[in-house]
Amino acid sequence: MAKNLFLNNLCNHSIIAAIFSKVSINGIYSKVVKSSMAEQKNTPELTIMQVPLMEDNIPVSTSPVSNNKGSLVTQAESHKSRDEIDKTSPKIVLATLNARFFHTSFGLRYLYANLKELQQYCEIQEFIIQTRALDIAEQILASNPDIIGFGVYIWNIVETTNVVNLLKVIAPDIKIVLGGPEVSYETEQQPIVDCADYVLTGAAELSFYQLCKDILNKTPPNKKILNSKPVALEDLALPYEYYTDEDLKHRLLYVEASRGCPFKCEFCLSSLDKSSMPFELTAFLDEMEILYQRGARNFKFIDRTFNLNIKTTMQIMQFFLDKMTDDLYLHFEVVPDHLPRKLKELLAQFPEGSLQFEIGIQTFNVEVQKNISRKQNNEKSKENLLWLRDNTSAHIHADLIFGLPGETFDTFKDSFNQLYHCRPHEIQMGILKRLKGSPIIRHTEAFDLRFNPLPPFDILSTDRVSFTTMQRINRFARYWDMIGNSGRFKYSLPHMLSDEPFDDFMAITEWIFNKTGQIHKINLKKLFELISQAVEALFPEKHQLVIEKIEIDYKAAKLKSLFSGLNLYGVAQVETVSKNKALKRQQQHMS
């Protein structure tokens, strides 16, 4: 769920169905290379080399590098390290194309952790999808690899295909290995697979090691598509020591106490899991202790059902509560109808700014829930949402999906209204995506599901929702993200909306779109002006009160008065305090 709902549907811990996980470097080419031997575990320590890119994505300099012992390598030493790396010619490059700077590559570090003796021949290179394919190819080829592994996802399939095509033209002898959920299903039909030498499907932490070993020993397999066997969690080397000090300082760290999901929601790849499997708790908490002692403070748990086993959940949360600091931040995905009393008592002890919960509602419509095999106690879910808002300081991010089989405009409106009155800080409205391998496709004919043939494969229409209506909801979701979810309008928005908030906000959505024709690139000042004008035109009886509240929001955004620099209502400026840039959006909602 996070950020984009289709990423959630992919399953954020998609290393279960992939060889690589998402990482993003904002305008930066990032490279993880072998360094000195770690004293404690006798394994290669990682160093991240980052090359900032100009607007045309050409590397211009090498920044200081942090190693796991906390020291900084100077620019000259960084260049020297790169020269030494070139001489050793790493045989394996693990590469990925991602979206944002503050993500870390959990899956790549898992692969590296399980490469055993091949670690010394491996490096990780991370890029963002905005980087030119030619520049990515150049950086990868500079390492002179024998094997390049790519993680392929719904968000990078186009860009990764371009890079793979280039690499095969420039250096056809290099073996290219693909993995990830986007190529783990319907594999043979995909153009990127035609360009690759091998594709690993499934959980590939161990099978990638074996494939690399076979290739380097000149005994490669004689078929392209290789299905990975299920992995026993106790057989995996954990990746946490391969988070660098720079990761700990500047990025969100992905961690997992369990894998899999016992539920069977058909829009999600996790529905293919047989059950949820826990990691050994003591070993997991030992790793969290090491990360914490090294300075880690931002932890994103990618467990699909974090509160499934309440005893384990409470042990993990108590572990962090005992270490609570002002800058500690924990992110969990929780089942909305399963919050027993003991867990509630523990949650109530966490201070403001320390917890975020992602809560997947998806729909409150019982018929639609049945269509997608989703089991959810709606009344208990609403009760728990309200309890969390009234009794904890947790930031609540709740999800809805539009376009599910059997969903109509009116049933979605009803779900939105019910969820809005539960008062989550954010309502993420995702449009249904066709994830390769997900069981949702069984409804294609019965409900006339028509998906975009291009990534991200979002639904265009159904038997009950026209393309025009789908576009209206898309715009509604986009404006809600800018206005409702941003926290910029927390004082004024409640006064714009009535007991039927969906209808009111749809009216605002259509007024702004008719006025501007835009759903992107509307600056904050302009957005305030548009909302003020929309309310005056649509709800004149509310205009005076809303304007007063908008002025408070405007000043809270640290902008000058909306009204010609004058404070018409004598409202004092509201100060906002940010303790962590990664939490800026969440903090907009907190009083």
From TrEMBL:
PROSITE patterns: B12_BINDING, RADICAL_SAM. Keywords: Iron, Iron-sulfur, Metal-binding, S-adenosyl-L-methionine. Residues 247-477 form the Radical SAM core domain. Its cofactor is [4Fe-4S] cluster. GO terms for cellular component: cytosol. The keyword Metal-binding applies. Residues 89-222 form the B12-binding domain. It comes from the Bacteria. One of its GO terms (molecular function) is catalytic activity. This is Radical SAM domain protein.
